[in-house]
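Entry for magnesium ion complex. Fields follow.
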Amino acid sequence: MYIGVDFGTAYSQAAVMEFSQPLILQEKGVYGTPSVFYYDQDTGIAIGQEAIDIAQGSLSVNMKTDVKMALQENKPFTADGKEFSCSEIVSEIFKAVLLEAKEIAANSGMDDEIKGMVITVPAKFGYLERDIIFKSAASALGDEKIPITGVLKEPVAAALHYFRTNVEDGKHILVFDLGGGTCDIALVRANSGSREFYDVIDSEMERIGGRNWDEKIAEYLKNEYEKMTGIAIGSNPAYERKILDAAIRAKHRLSRNDKALCSVEINGNVNKIHLSLQQFNDLTAPLLDQAVSALKRVYNRHVSDCEIDEIICVGGSSNMTQIKERIAAEFPLCNVRVYYPEYAVVYGAALYADMRKGKVVDVIDRANFSYGIQVVKHKGTENEKYKIQNMVIKDSALPASSVRNYRPTEDNMAFIAFRTYETDTVYERCDMDEFPMTKIGELKLKLPPNTPKTTDIRTQLTLNENGVLEVKAWDPEGNVIQTEFNVIQ
Ligand SMILES: Nc1ncnc2c1ncn2[C@@H]1O[C@H](COP(=O)(O)OP(=O)(O)OP(=O)(O)O)[C@@H](O)[C@H]1O
Ligand SMILES: [Mg+2]
């Protein structure tokens, strides 16, 4: 089977196409596998609902939630004396999702052998975060021969599924995906003419999602509880978890009702706290503003050159009534729809996995950032200066690449090593620290013995269609030179 997997902040899901329809490979009635990791020495590793169930009986400090939001810092997590890297945790979540998918496929008499996988990533994650997801997904497959056949931005995956039944050549849609940890936006155009492809015109992301809405309610409940009982809750993780669970339940209820009664129990002391939809909306108004501003930025950048008359809202958090109400009010010229909020992304991933079997369909995406290397000018003089030479420019359609000649700084060097940077600029050259930039790794060109420093090494840097950097190099005679690109761990 060709499978699509959406690794989410809150839930991870897998799906395949079966009889031309997407099918979630998860137990019936279950939203997805909670992206939760747990470890203790007696239990070992537990993932998903099992992890949550076990953690409730013991200290939740052994439980890691929202790991996707921790990839930027990429700090290890220690549980019961054992250290786990983010990448190990992500890989365990992928493994659990794939294992369940295979079991369900086998039990339903379907082909359970995975032949390829499409994964989804947030619209504007940096290279290092995407790299962790990509490599963790690949390692969870456990077999180097099983390819990752596509990497889609989450809102783009939802767009593919939407276009399936609503396709018109040249039609644009704006997707707003508010999940558990990210608010992702993409403007996508469908081309169903002689060659079917989808063009990702633009995308945006804010690092906010349902978890931030939860925190706002939890903060309110904690204050109310302390006011009502005079008991300070302090910062006990077990109590905080209980309040957070009450907050999430209230939030879900408020998607269908205009009030919720939250029951907060601490040390046998039960208190019922009322929360109205209006109060909830007021508490979370700044978050909604932030999400809608990102949507407006994309809309405003393109409204003069493309017809945007449809906004589709996906992601579990689009169930909140404030989302559709506000977007419809802000964009009166658009038809605003909430579209399979929990499933659109993974449905799109499954659909793309199926389409990619025959390699007939492409999604043309763009580089989120520029990628370049640090070069030194006027080395050894008082004018010595370090600059970034960008070789893949932000917003270029993928695959994007360029070729440049570089020379070793001395005779007989064994290799040339370049620090590689991701920068948020569209300029080919920039000074260090002139723009936001992140060092992402080191690029190495292995030189033949006795290479003089006057030798031009033709170097090509490519950001491929999956957003992965590749490097190739040649000596002046056109012989291929050994290269490597090592990402910072
Ligand atoms: N009925 C509902 N009402 C309000 N919020 C909901 C509802 N159903 C789900 N959510 C919220 O949606 C969020 C999960 O959405 P989703 O599964 O799309 O996120 P994710 O894919 O895990 O995260 P991300 O895409 O940001 O990495 C959670 O915060 C959850 O509380
Ligand atoms: Mg999501």
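NOTE: The mean pLDDT is 93.
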